[in-house]
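> @MW can you paste both from yesterday?
MW: sure, first one:
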Amino acid sequence: MKRFFYFVLSVGIGVGGVLGYQKYYGNTSGSGGMSSEPPLVEARVLLNDPQRPVLDQEDSLGAPVSSSDGVRDGASGAVPSLVSGVLPGRTVSSQSLPRTETYTPGVPVLGGDIKVEVNSTSAGLEAERAPSPLLGADVKKLASVAEEGRLALESGELERGLALYHEIFRGAREREDVNIVPVVRKLVELASGEEWAVEYHTYLAKNDPGREWKFKSALAAGQVLSTSRKAEDLRQAWSYLSVAYQASRSTQERQSVLRVLEPFLKEHIFSGRFSALVKSHTVQSGDSLARIAQKNSTTVDSLVRLNRLTTRTIQPGQRLVVLSGTVEIYINKSEYRLWLLVNGNVLMEKRVGLGRDNSTPEGAFDIDQRQKDPTWYRRGKPSVPPGDPKNILGTRWLGFKDTDEFQGFGIHGTRDNSSIGTQSSSGCVRLTNHDIEELWDFVPRRAAVHISE
């Protein structure tokens, strides 16, 4: 009888242990078993780590901080009315033991790795788009919350600090009376997840005075938006990629932009299809390519190229792709580089050759002549007709309007491709015949040319 009693007791203990084990792991995984994904947990930055995030006084938005304006709820330090400690879209699960690891956000961390000690928590928050509780808050209130976030980050409350910064962003990103660039920089550096990344980057691309941050954020925003199917996203993508291109300071940076920009433009402008980056014009009775080009500040040749026309005769009801807007050419002599802008957006980049002994002039010029297969006229010598191997102008000529100081300069093609990237001309800007033909099609008379050292 005693043996039977101990047998029943041991069986009961075993069953209870199994049930307790299943209940525990059911609670931690949320699905009755262990989660296959690594948990997102609250992280505390190690205070003795020399690479921990340190926010200086500029993160307080430049306004005095009053303890009465903080967002803490009593002595407990909780902030239920503002944030729950994690960014929207993140789900946090618990973990039994703390550990030290490298914090790896979705974007590169400037200044090296950040070592973090991971603590267990069971808090969670679903993605939301409700108005921020800081919408319309005065600058003093925003400064108080910024200081709260800074102190949270410095004390190791990474999730809570980022959540406070995120609410500042949501509440103040459209305002002009307060600068939240330092707050958004921290969000880009430390916040993982993709939901808000584009919005952080677009803010910095528009507002960050730092060249490096503007380049990085404009490129990131443009790259994401370039994959969208929405018309406004595509227009914004072209704008941000152009900002990144013009903020770049090295060939490597420009190439990183062009790897995104060139296929983007090929698909949405040069493919001949209608897109958000071009206008659609339906030919009316009495229309001509010249009339349509003049109305849209473009050239007949751009209409022919973009629409892949085999004849210049058009019919009523025919739909045409039109790229309209102000055209400008920029040339950087030290880099032998030319780029073309349409309404401030980069359309193409070309490698150029320049004048011997730095004879290519610097300054602002206007295109005054557009010639296809130009004749080369030489002072005191016989002219050289188009197609003659001695004609150094190649297949196209874009002549500058003469000034009191400079006469006879322009941009032209060349048969001598080896002269590109060198100082070989008499002062004009050279492109290969292939490149000048593509450029020439989009450059109307009176287009501005800016040449700098």
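MW: second:
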Amino acid sequence: MFALCRSDIEQEERVSLNLDFGNYMNKHDEFWEKFYSTHRSTVSRYLLPIILSILSLIIIKLIFLSCGGPPLTSLALLSVIISCIYGGKGSAVVCTLMTAIGIELVFISSNSFYLHWGHSVIRVIVYGVVAVIVCGLVDSLKNNLVTCRLQKNLVISEIKEKEEILSVVSNDLKVPLSSVIMSASLFNREADSKNLPDNSAKLISVILNSANRMNSLIEDLLDSVKFDSGSFSLNLRSYNFIEVVSSSVDESQLIANKKRIEIIFENSKDALEVQCDPERCIQVISNIISNAVKFSPENSRITIKLTEMLKEVVVSIKDEGCGISAEDIPKLFSKFWQVKGTAHLGTGLGLFIAHKIIYMHKGHIEVESICGKGSNFKIYLPRV
């Protein structure tokens, strides 16, 4: 018992030390980040090297007077490095010139300076070359540190983004999963008693719809992962695209009927061959139609047109919904992005995946929308 308690105490102490060290490192990083990344005025950038060069000369002189021996001129490099970090190369150059000339004047007599000015100039130049090399290394390290910090912030934002979407998906999965469990439990209980309820068909429909919804969410996540890993592929073949659009309309008809939304498919052709992956194209068109249904009012209309052009086939999906603002249209196909006020109505992956799939078909998607008057999504695919 004592051993267990001791172990727990030691573990808590280690955790506490790790937290303290982590907090210390975070504060340390924040200090240096502010020190080297803050935009400073020209006066402050060049005032600091002047102060540092004077202080370094005073310190070198005091050490020389108290300890004797050769002057510790290498200490002046420290002021050059700090100036470089604080104000950049220009600040470091000013500090270098001041400390180099100051060392020559302070530690060499004026007569000797004028007699051996050539040696003094060489020493100043050598000191300047060394300082420039050091400044270059410091500046390179500083830039790398800034880059690493930006990449770290990017990774952190991506992790937070994924955590948020996983939270949304988990919440979205809980609702249909609860419906499946409750309906299946009720159906199973009544089936055991051989007394099936009158609403058996409705319970089965709830189970199927909920299961399909969960499957759609999971498929979107899997497709997103495949795009990230580069393993997403298409099964391209020549196919009648009219059948693709018809199948997409049929898949979306059920959810449209629930809101009494009429889907009209306008087409005058019997066959229109397109090189495509029919299953993936059905996924894209069904997704856009379901979005149109989702954001359209009841008793409205969704019009789908299939147009044949010289080198392309165009599928137009026009709704009478709330529309999309001009500033939001460029963000529509971004990963995990959703229009404000529509959170938890989806994963934010549907249009991202649709855009990727059409792009892999060497096509593109255009969006025309007016707030309050609906949207028109146009899918362009190359013909055979």
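> thanks! The chain has ten helices and seven strands.
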